[in-house]
Amino acid sequence: MAKKPKDLSSDKVADVTGKPQTRKVTTMGRPSVYSDALANDICTRLGLGQSLRKICLDEDMPSLRSVMNWLTTKPDFLQQYTRAREIQAETQFDELIDIVDQPPELARIVDKNGELIEVKFDSSYVQWMKLRVDTRKWTAARMAPKKYAEYRAPEEKVDSMIVDGEIKTVMDVAIKRLELIRIAE
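Structure (tokenized):
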């Protein structure tokens, strides 16, 4: 019969001399137990524009899996999280204004005497800024589509069965005449 492994979970351990000492209990890993303080911290950081993935990479934050689990098991957290995502869309929209208002980087070309010869735009910088703007527009539109999605008017569908009123009247008269002719025969 196999021996049971010795229980090492007690708080008492022996040192080299054999005298019992109290062992310090250290916490291992990330927090996975839900708390209001942790939920508030996550939602505050979301509202400030950080991604949930980036927040969950911090050592003092729960894993992404734990947060997703909380969203399905904690209705209060789901409501708080939803509101934080709405605020995050607002934050990203505000960042658009900051990005657009930022002056472009210019390359100044001067001669030996220090006189300005030419000023050039850095095209890669302009493309990078455009990408930042487009990404924030896209994410804001996905987070709050009623508020930030580009509105497209629905196309009018033309029903081939609907005809002009005058034509319909003429057709109705013709059908009645055909019916009368058929009855008369």
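The CA atoms of residues 115 and 126 lie 26 Å apart. The helical segments are 36-47, 52-57, 64-73, 75-101, 123-143, 145-148, 165-184.
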